[in-house]
Amino acid sequence: MSNQALSINLDQPYIPQLTEVDFKPIFILGDHRSGTTLLYQLLASSDCFNVFKAYHIIKYDEILHNHIHRIESVKLNELEAQFKQLGISDREFDLVQVSPELPEEYGFILRNTGHEPYVNPSNLAIFAEACQKVQFTGDADKSLLLKNPWCYPHFEYLRQTFPNARFIFIHRNPVQVINSKLKVVDTVLSRWNPYTGLISKRYHKIFKSPTNRLLYRVMYSKRFNLGLRKVLHQSMESTTYFLGAYKKFIGAAVHFYSV
User: Fold this and answer.
1) From 24-28, 151-155, 222-226, the region with the lowest mean pLDDT
2) N or C: which end of the chain has fewer CB within 10 A?
3) Is the full-model pTM beyond 0.90?
4) Confidence grade of residue 239 (pLDDT, cut at 50, 70, 90)
5) Rounded to the nearest 10 degrees, what angle do helices 210-219 and 174-190 cross at?
6) If pLDDT is split at 50, 70 and 90, which confidence band does 36 have?
7) Beta-carbon contacts of residue 43 (< 8 Å; ≥ 6 apart)
8) How far apart are CA 173 and CA 155, in angstroms?
9) 237: pLDDT confidence band, cut at 50, 70 and 90?
10) pLDDT digits (tens, 9 = 90+) for 109-129
11) Cα separation of 86 and 245, whole Å?
12) Which residues fall within 8 angstroms of residue 200, CB to CB, at 6 or more apart?
């Protein structure tokens, strides 16, 4: 059964246990297709951090339940079997190998719950709850490593909301970023991507609606270049925001990588 099916929130009875759970966030920030996934995977492989995984996105409403009842490993194995049944081995658009343990973006949780995919006042409670869930079921002594490109052009809010947070910014040539974005969109709209369908309710809704899918395909077709203009505008807006807001970070604990 996919995450699109109606399900009971098994975690609800255990939410009060999160009240005292604290987390130390470290945000990896950069534009989509800038290399955040690679950096996130590399740092996660050190086993020095708690991280969001595909399992947390797909099974969000049962993270606490499965942990408290000590059936998390069973659910991970079931999810692995589901991947195999669906023929999922990689993300297809970038050949990143997929497993329930794959480090993933918390933005999917925000969007799957009906909010914008970047942290803001309206979804802050959901974000905090998600972080507390991962921290509660992980190692209490480890910092929480987070990655979500949607927060890149909004990171000032993160800095103000989490004054003790750490930030790692990653940059890639904008021309390469734009080209990569367009290729990804073309790939996921041309044929059904079962992995993306599991972690993104929005993608499932778009692809499974002939009308919505047609509209997106027309938008991103080379004939009209509407998609190119949109992606170009987004990249320019994000980069301009970063260059302006980054100056305010002077004196803060910030690391910057360029690939």
Assistant:
1) 222-226
2) N
3) no
4) confident
5) 150
6) very high
7) 28, 49, 145
8) 20
9) confident
10) 999 999 999 999 999 999 999
11) 43
12) 108, 111, 112
CB of 4 closer than 8 Å to CB of 207: no
- Distance separating alpha carbons of residues 24 and 134, to the nearest angstrom: 12
Query: How far is the C-alpha of 56 from the C-alpha of 148, rounded, in Å?
Result: 14
- Encoded tokens for 30: 């950069």
Q: Among 94, 92, 91, 116, which Cα is nearest to 106's?
A: 116
Q: What is the DSSP letter of 211?
A: H
CA distance 191 to 174: 26
DSSP 34: S
Separation CA 56–CA 63 (nearest Å): 7
The structure tokens listed for 104 are 């993933």
Residue 1, pLDDT score: 41
Q: Which phi and psi angles does 209 have, rounded to 5°?
A: -105, 110
Encoded amino acid at 127, one letter:
F
Give the 3-state secondary structure of residue 170: strand
> Using CA atoms, how far apart are residues 248 and 10, in angstroms rounded to an integer?
42
Q: For residue 138, give the 3-state DSSP assignment.
A: coil
Report residue 108 as tokens. Answer: 């999917």
pLDDT higher than threshold 50 for residue 2 = no
Element at 168 (helix H, strand E): strand 166-171
Band of residue 100 on the pLDDT scale cut at 50, 70, 90: very high
